[in-house]
Amino acid sequence: MNYRIIFYIVGWVFNLQAIFMVLPCLTAVIYGETDLGAFLVSIVICLAVGLPLTNKKPQNKVFYIKDGCIAVALSWIVLSITGAIPFILSGAIPHPIDAIFETVSGFTTTGSSILTDVEILPKSVLFWRSFTHWIGGMGVLVFLLSLLPLAGGYHMNLMRAESPGPSVSKLVPKVQSTAKILYTIYLGMTVLQIILLLLGGVPVFDSLCITFGSAGTGGFGIKNDSMASYSTYCQVVTTVFIILFGVNFSAYYLILTKKFKQAFKLEEVRYYFGIILASVILIAVNTRHMFSGFAEAFQQSAFQVGSIITTTGYSSTDFNQWPALSKTILVLLMFVGACAGSTGGGIKVSRVVLLCKAARKEFQLYLHPNAVKKLKMDNKAVSHETLRSTNIFLSVYLLIFCGSILIVSLDNFDLVTNFTAVAATLNNIGPGLEVAGPMGNFSSFSYLSKSVMIFDMLAGRLEIFPLLLLFFKDTWKKF
Amino acid sequence: MHIIIVGCGKVGRTLAEQLQEEEIDLTLIDTVEKTINDVTEDIDAMGIVGNGASINTLMEAGISTADILIAVTASDELNLLCCLIAQKTGSCQTIARVRNPIYSQEIGFIKEKLGISMIINPEYAAAQEISRLLRFPAAIKIDPFSRGKVELLKFKVLPEFHLDGMSISRITEKFRCDILFCAVENKDALTIPGGDYIIHDGDFVSIIATPQNTALFFKKIGFRTNQVKNALIIGGGTISYYLAKTLIDTRIHVKIIEKDPNRCEFLSDLLPDATIINGDGTDRALLLEEGLETAESFVTLTNFDEENIFLSLFAKKSSNAKVVAKVNRLPYTDVIDDLDLGSVIYPKYITSDSILRYVRAMQNTIGSNVETLYHILDSQAEALEFAVHDHSPVTGVPLSELKLKKNLLICCLTRNGSVRIPRGHDTVEVGDHVIVATTHKGLRNICDILEK
């Protein structure tokens, strides 16, 4: 284990966190709020740890996949803890576990909140909450990679550990350029959404926060009823953008480089839109009677489906009141999640497609036991290794899911609440059903359950293994 | 700059490792997925699994925007095909590795008619390097600059030279030779030495000078420098063939020991003046019978690094021959350097050096370009030759006033064909060839030698 370089990277995360916090400081200054102090103290704390760690560039730059995973996992823990400091200091969320829950929920782009009333919070705190989504969406280490030139090919290991999806591919030969392109696309789409929202008459502060929430597919609202009180225009714009942020970013790169054919041929993206379309129509038909017309039903259903499948977690209506079929579809979508290489969470469409294809292949093996058949994705054979890791991912995922439900059930809520609360946190969605539903929140869970959910959110965002590696005894052995 | 490398064997990988340190976008193509995965683990490059001669694969690798395509797969024909297709689909320069001796005589035709920018033949290049060493056995390594007018030459400081404890400026003063010490390696590190650097026995010293001056210097310190009269070569591969051919041309008697009788017949057909022995080159009795003890040079060119190293050690012990060993595997150079084998030849480095030279030359910006490039020790330091075509901040200023980078030495100036070891008052002028030794990587034009 190359501790020097791990500490160096973690040190940079401290520094970046300090830089990120400058923005809520500005907000506090603009609105003349007293929480400026809380953020300034947090910045000082971050720099006090970060600067000494990044003072000297490590000589030994050899960086294996295990170092990458550990660095990523530690970075995210650092982000979560340092990000919670302003919440505690400003008195917005006094209890540390609550504050960390809220921060983790922000950085992992979950959007589950333990706050019962967000409207009384100072603007700077609200801004920080939403901004953590934006940082967490594309990933802080990807951001770091785009800035920091680490020599050698080793930093691919960092990107691999942080980026969602079964296999990570680079857009261009250099990792640094790839990271830059990703952030440019991300920033461009963010700015576009902000402009469109502003054009619709949404106040500047609101459009910033809404956009951060949708870009990172996070879902922290700045209103108690999430998005319900905004205009239809605003909801439609948000729907379109959340769905777009759930698309594999390599599709955008292909479009930018004018390879339209290849972009529209991406199998995962096609399935993604197919699933969305089918779900929207089914739910719209199912909930037609609850709205004034089919158009409204369609719009509301599109918003909810987009919000859930991309694991954003905004809500424009209380879908807890919807018929069972619609609710079930939403819960199933929670598990599917967005595309790999997007900002969304969940199991990822590509994995689901891969598993379905593998199942189909299994059937064929019953018919022709000696058949040799290669699984294909985007017309390319999927290696056995990818398939194996997908299978293992799903099993470990289910194990964590079951374990978490078991612990959360100690709180004595009903099964639906427990099930959806864990699903909502592990898949980085936000709201579940019943107590944890769109109009409810997570404040009534015990601190034990909250800690479990903090773990689930981090595990979900980092795709389980990098985080679990921290708890694996052999990781820390010298030999 | 975008470079595509087809084939990720040892050469492809070494090239990629060296190219990634420069500002280059690399795309690697190989047919084996595992190879690609392994390479992209260590190297910041895009990996593509596929056949490099397929248009689709090349398109995916971005051939339309690529500047250079380098084909270094195991097959000559595939390499040539890759280059041909790449030229038809894109507008890039192409470099192919072609090593079959049959094609080697037709290289001029291939380059011209097929439009391939550069053909590399590692075996031929390795044979050339070995033959240089045998003509000047005192050196461990000889790299020619300016078409052989200047040489970078490495030798080991032995006690009988009585150089131990002398500073470099004293040595040059005492022997009055126009030579320049450009690098000293000892156990700890490689240094680009200044005048007050103290030389010790056992150091490996690289000097730059004209061949005449080198010979003079060696004569003065009492080092045998005569060309060897005979050579015992173990292994009858392609390098052996090229080497034997070159040596016979310079009237060195050649004896080749090869295991495979068919190969022996083939060699004896092509090399009527050489003695071809059919037998196991690792057989001690056979080696002694064939006169290892009286051989003046002993070259091990089998396909097994272990055998080559082992045989070289044996030859060192039982004879006074100049020993040259071929080593294919690169990652263990540090161990091999400790063994005191005499000269070690790394054909992979020779190949990647010459390609790197070409790539750097293509990147030249301010009217000067890299003509020659050599690695001094396991790619820790480089010696480069620049051709100065234009005025720049470097030209016209006395060297002592230039703010040079640390660990960088201007070793040699060639002007109108005359070679001089530069002193502080000399200036670099347009039209000069400048040789620089440095531990900095990625120097592309002459201005890079200045401190930024």
From TrEMBL, chain A:
<comment type="similarity">
    <text>Belongs to the TrkH potassium transport family.</text>
</comment>
<feature type="transmembrane region" description="Helical">
    <location>
        <begin position="392"/>
        <end position="410"/>
    </location>
</feature>
<keyword id="KW-0406">Ion transport</keyword>
<keyword id="KW-1133">Transmembrane helix</keyword>
<feature type="transmembrane region" description="Helical">
    <location>
        <begin position="329"/>
        <end position="347"/>
    </location>
</feature>
<feature type="transmembrane region" description="Helical">
    <location>
        <begin position="452"/>
        <end position="472"/>
    </location>
</feature>
<dbReference type="Pfam" id="PF02386">
    <property type="entry name" value="TrkH"/>
</dbReference>
<feature type="transmembrane region" description="Helical">
    <location>
        <begin position="36"/>
        <end position="55"/>
    </location>
</feature>
<feature type="transmembrane region" description="Helical">
    <location>
        <begin position="181"/>
        <end position="205"/>
    </location>
</feature>
<feature type="transmembrane region" description="Helical">
    <location>
        <begin position="269"/>
        <end position="285"/>
    </location>
</feature>
<feature type="transmembrane region" description="Helical">
    <location>
        <begin position="131"/>
        <end position="151"/>
    </location>
</feature>
<protein>
    <submittedName>
        <fullName>Trk system potassium uptake protein TrkH</fullName>
    </submittedName>
</protein>
<dbReference type="InterPro" id="IPR003445">
    <property type="entry name" value="Cat_transpt"/>
</dbReference>
<keyword id="KW-0472">Membrane</keyword>
<keyword id="KW-0630">Potassium</keyword>
<feature type="transmembrane region" description="Helical">
    <location>
        <begin position="7"/>
        <end position="30"/>
    </location>
</feature>
<keyword id="KW-0813">Transport</keyword>
<keyword id="KW-0633">Potassium transport</keyword>
<dbReference type="InterPro" id="IPR004772">
    <property type="entry name" value="TrkH"/>
</dbReference>
<keyword id="KW-0812">Transmembrane</keyword>
<feature type="transmembrane region" description="Helical">
    <location>
        <begin position="236"/>
        <end position="257"/>
    </location>
</feature>
<keyword id="KW-1003">Cell membrane</keyword>
UniProtKB/TrEMBL annotation, chain B:
<keyword id="KW-0630">Potassium</keyword>
<dbReference type="Pfam" id="PF02254">
    <property type="entry name" value="TrkA_N"/>
</dbReference>
<feature type="domain" description="RCK C-terminal">
    <location>
        <begin position="140"/>
        <end position="224"/>
    </location>
</feature>
<dbReference type="InterPro" id="IPR036291">
    <property type="entry name" value="NAD(P)-bd_dom_sf"/>
</dbReference>
<feature type="domain" description="RCK N-terminal">
    <location>
        <begin position="1"/>
        <end position="120"/>
    </location>
</feature>
<dbReference type="Pfam" id="PF02080">
    <property type="entry name" value="TrkA_C"/>
</dbReference>
<keyword id="KW-0633">Potassium transport</keyword>
<dbReference type="InterPro" id="IPR006037">
    <property type="entry name" value="RCK_C"/>
</dbReference>
<dbReference type="InterPro" id="IPR006036">
    <property type="entry name" value="K_uptake_TrkA"/>
</dbReference>
<keyword id="KW-0406">Ion transport</keyword>
<dbReference type="InterPro" id="IPR050721">
    <property type="entry name" value="Trk_Ktr_HKT_K-transport"/>
</dbReference>
<dbReference type="InterPro" id="IPR036721">
    <property type="entry name" value="RCK_C_sf"/>
</dbReference>
<feature type="domain" description="RCK N-terminal">
    <location>
        <begin position="228"/>
        <end position="344"/>
    </location>
</feature>
<feature type="domain" description="RCK C-terminal">
    <location>
        <begin position="371"/>
        <end position="452"/>
    </location>
</feature>
<protein>
    <recommendedName>
        <fullName>Trk system potassium uptake protein TrkA</fullName>
    </recommendedName>
</protein>
<dbReference type="InterPro" id="IPR003148">
    <property type="entry name" value="RCK_N"/>
</dbReference>
<keyword id="KW-0813">Transport</keyword>
<keyword id="KW-0520">NAD</keyword>
